[in-house]
Amino acid sequence: MHYGFRVINDLRSGLSHYLDDMKFASPNEIIGKALPSIVSHDQLPRKRMRSQIHKDLCIGCDLCYVACRDGGHNAIDRLENRIAHIEWERCVGCGLCNFVCPVDGCIEMMEWK
Ligand code: SF4
Ligand code: SF4
Question: Model pTM?
C-alpha cells in the first residue's frame, strides 16, 4: 500500500533470488510449505505490542489512518485538526502505522501491559 504497484517488480525479483539461493526450480516447489507453521495472531511468540501516537508531533497527514483502515483493523480515528488517535482495543500491533508515518518519533510501538 505504501509503495504502490511498482513494489510487485521488487517482490518478483526477491522471490527469484530466494528460489535460486534455496535451489528451488520454481515457486510451485514451495507452495504450502509454511502451512504447518500458521497460527492465529494471538498465538504468535512475541510481546503484545500496540502503537502510541505522540499527538504533539502529528501533522494530520492521514497516512496512518488510511493504512490502518485499509489494512482491516480500523484502529485509528481522527481528532480535531486531523490529529490521529489510536483506539487501543482495536489495535493489533502490526506496526503499519509506524511504518508509513512521515514524522520521526511520532508513532511509537509500546508493549501492551
Ligand atoms: S499498529 Fe496496526 S492495528 Fe495498530 S493502529 Fe497501527 S496500523 Fe492500526
Ligand atoms: S501518519 Fe503520523 S503524522 Fe500522519 S496523521 Fe498519522 S500520526 Fe499523524
Answer: 0.68
